[in-house]
Design goal:
Layout lengths: L15 H15 L4 H13 L3 H11 L10 H9 L5 H18 L4 H9 L4 H9 L10 H10 L6 H15 L3 H14 L3
Helix pairs in contact: 1-3, 2-3, 3-5, 4-5, 5-7, 6-7, 7-9, 9-10
Length: 190
């Protein structure tokens, strides 16, 4: 795993199924702490060297994502820019932030638009991926606006996010994605 992640992170070597089973057992035995303590635990996990700690945040919080109140948004944004790499951003944005913002839709556009304008390309990636699992509930105008805003990006992870988001959205709106991709291809001279 360390080699796969370009030597950026240390690992205990716990495989995903084993880690998830361990988290499940801990939750059964100890229960989950209250939400303020869970926020502090998330911060703690992102301060640890071994990557499995960061993955544990996804394991613990993802089932609660739609129950999180907006006070979680600053923490999740903080985690996106902490020890950032695709593996954490790709669960923090669509799963945790996506679930929270689906439950609080009035925060979706302001959050995504702020992130897409950030100088941090991981937040730009998060802005594009936040609606990844929304299917018919996708705010198409917002998705296309975020992708258009970064259509000149040379950053691999931002461009990869755009392709992934469009592929997912094309499953529910193929014609709209086709029109959009043809339009954007013309504007960036492809």
């Amino acid at each position: 795993m360390k080699r796969y992640m370009r030597e950026q992170f240390n690992f205990y070597g716990i495989k995903s199924p084993d880690r998830k089973n361990l988290i499940t057992e801990i939750k059964k035995e100890k229960g989950l702490p209250g939400l303020p303590a869970l926020q502090e635990f998330c911060r703690f996990c992102f301060q640890q060297d071994e990557r499995e700690w960061q993955y544990a945040v996804g394991d613990l919080v993802e089932p609660l994502a739609r129950k999180l109140d907006p006070s979680w948004l600053p923490l999740l944004e903080e985690l996106i820019v902490t020890k950032s790499w695709w593996d954490t951003v790709d669960f923090l944005s669509p799963k945790l932030c996506g679930g929270l913002l689906l439950a609080h839709p009035h925060l979706l556009a302001p959050t995504a638009l702020r992130w897409i304008e950030s100088d941090n390309f991981w937040l730009q990636r998060a802005a594009i991926l936040v609606q990844l699992t929304y299917k018919q509930k996708t705010n198409e105008e917002l998705l296309f606006a975020c992708i258009t805003r970064r259509s000149d990006s040379k950053e691999f992870f931002v461009n990869k996010a755009a392709g992934w988001a469009l592929r997912q959205y094309a499953r529910v709106a193929p014609e709209q994605v086709k029109v959009f991709t043809n339009k954007i291809a013309l504007t960036i001279n492809l």
